Amino acid sequence: MQDEQNTSAPDIKKRAIRSFVVRGGRMTEGQQKAYDANWAVYGLEVPNGRIVYEEVFGRQSDVVIEVGFGMGASLVEMAKNAPEKDFIGIEVHPPGVAKLMMLAAEAGINNIRVYCHDAIEVMADALPQGEAATFQLFFPDPWHKKKHNKRRIVQPVFAQQVRNILKTDGVFHMATDWEPYAEHMMEVMEAQDNYENVAGKGHYHPRPDWRPLTKFEQRGERLGHGVWDLIYKKI
């Protein structure tokens, strides 16, 4: 991730920024079957070009984008609990994509779609500009070592790419359980002159009720670990 601010999608692509580090992505036979069975319903493809939300979901709605949803349980729960909204998940890990689609099918919900692709390219090439109501980034890789901090996804250039796909007054919601990363997020976002901290300058936001607690987060709470939410509005 580059430190300099740049809102140009072509320049972003030219630098070959990636929002992830490839890990084991081999699916089990069951996951592959779930993937194959559900992709036609829930899957979106970057090569098909920029989507139109109303065409994808068959209605006008507030659209929520989430990057890095893991195994998908929290995102499916949010979609189930907010049927008036539509959700698009972006995840590069195929087993997680397979699991999310399976959970969505089991829950019988149709207000969710998914890209199995790098988020940077999805945002640059496939999502409408200036239309999403919310962008969610929950518990991204904190890259603990100082020499790896530059690999953190939350950087000025990323903040501006998120801004590009948000509508005016749309929000960028982040959460992390690593305090140094929370501080890094705060530093990056407070420096952007086209975002406003919903909780007030320099303040973290209480966890909203609609963000489900993950099992990992619940375990962390029992152990006394903190979680920091940051919510910034596009202005």
Automatic annotation (TrEMBL):
Coiled coil: none annotated. The keyword Transcription regulation does not apply. InterPro entries: SAM-dependent_MTases_sf, tRNA_(Gua-N-7)_MeTrfase_Trmb, tRNA_methyltr_TrmB_bact. S-adenosyl-L-methionine binds at E66, E91, D118, D141. Substrate binds at K145, D177, T214, K215, F216, E217. Gene3D superfamilies: Vaccinia Virus protein VP39. Pfam families: Methyltransf_4. It comes from the Bacteria. Keywords: Methyltransferase, S-adenosyl-L-methionine, Transferase, tRNA processing. The keyword Methyltransferase applies. Its EC number is 2.1.1.33. One of its GO terms (molecular function) is tRNA (guanine(46)-N7)-methyltransferase activity. It catalyses: guanosine(46) in tRNA + S-adenosyl-L-methionine = N(7)-methylguanosine(46) in tRNA + S-adenosyl-L-homocysteine. Pathway: tRNA modification; N(7)-methylguanine-tRNA biosynthesis. Residues 147-152 are annotated as: Interaction with RNA. PANTHER family: 3-DEOXY-D-MANNO-OCTULOSONIC-ACID TRANSFERASE/TRNA GUANINE-N 7 - -METHYLTRANSFERASE, PENTACOTRIPEPTIDE-REPEAT REGION OF PRORP DOMAIN-CONTAINING PROTEIN. Belongs to the class I-like SAM-binding methyltransferase superfamily. TrmB family. Catalyzes the formation of N(7)-methylguanine at position 46 (m7G46) in tRNA. This is tRNA (guanine-N(7)-)-methyltransferase. It comes from Rhodanobacter aciditrophus. The lineage of its organism: Bacteria, Pseudomonadati, Pseudomonadota, Gammaproteobacteria, Lysobacterales. The gene is trmB.
